[in-house]
Design brief:
Elements lengths: L1 H19 L21 E4 L8 E4 L10 E7 L9 H7 L5 E5 L11 H19 L4 E10 L1 H11 L5 E7 L3
Length: 171
């Protein structure tokens, strides 16, 4: 009887510690992985219902038993969602990279509501990824030119789960 109670307490503590670490246990072995969840592959995904593109790159060293960091990369003005620059920097290892589209198309805005829309957009991406992959609790953002500017806005305007920002070529 005591052994049964102790095993339940240990299981509870294990699940509790995983939740503190930001690990999701929603994925089960019986779930079929989506077509985009291929180690070393970059895939355009349309799960956001958006007219713009979102791309997901799964690292070559991907395994389902690991908790993964996410790096959301924003392209420059006139560009399209891409993961290629960040895949080169990471050598296609250790990060799930998301080539982001902009929640508010156009030249960009400093308005608080525009930044909040981008934060919400990242949250939706994370929510959808977390249905299939265990993710770290915080998100890296990065970008070049306009994307660097967006990364700076997210870093300085209160993105609540920011791990770090890579600001490149933003002037």
């Amino acid at each position: 009887m005591i052994a049964k109670i102790m095993s339940r307490v240990i299981l509870f503590l294990f699940v509790f510690m995983l939740s503190l670490a930001g690990v999701s246990l929603s994925q089960t072995a019986s779930q079929t992985p989506p077509a985009w969840l291929v180690p070393g592959a970059e895939t355009e995904v349309s799960w956001l219902g958006s007219k713009t593109s979102t791309r997901v790159a799964i690292p070559e060293n991907f395994t389902a038993d690991r908790v993964w960091p996410v790096l959301c990369y924003f392209h420059g003005t006139g560009g399209q969602a891409s993961t290629s620059m960040m895949r080169r920097f990471t050598r296609q290892r250790d990060y799930i990279i998301v080539g982001m589209s902009y929640a508010v198309p156009g030249a960009g805005s400093l308005a608080a509501d525009a930044v909040q829309k981008q934060i919400n957009h990242i949250a939706r991406v994370r929510e959808l990824l977390s249905k299939h992959v265990a993710l770290q609790a915080r998100t890296f953002v990065g970008g070049f030119s306009k994307g660097g500017w967006m990364s700076d806005l997210l870093a300085t305007r209160g993105f609540p789960t920011l791990a770090g920002a890579l600001i490149m070529g933003a002037g």
